Amino acid sequence: MEYLSNSELILNPDGSVYHLNLLPEQVAKTIITVGDPDRVDSVSKHFDRLDCKVQKREFVTHTGWIGKQRLTVISTGIGTGNIDIVFNELDALFNIDLKKKVLKEALTQLKFIRIGTSGCLKKDIPIDSFLVTEFAVGMDNLLTYYKYDRNVREQHLKKSLQRYLKTERTKLKKIPYVFEGHPKLIKKLGKGFLKGVTLTCTGFYGPQGRQLRAQNKVANLLDHFVHFNDQQSRFQHKKNSYNWQITNFEMETAGIYGMAKLLGHQAISFNALLANRGAGTFSKTPKKTVDRLISEVLERIVDTDS
Question: For 116-283, CATH number?
Answer without folding.
Answer: 3.40.50.1580
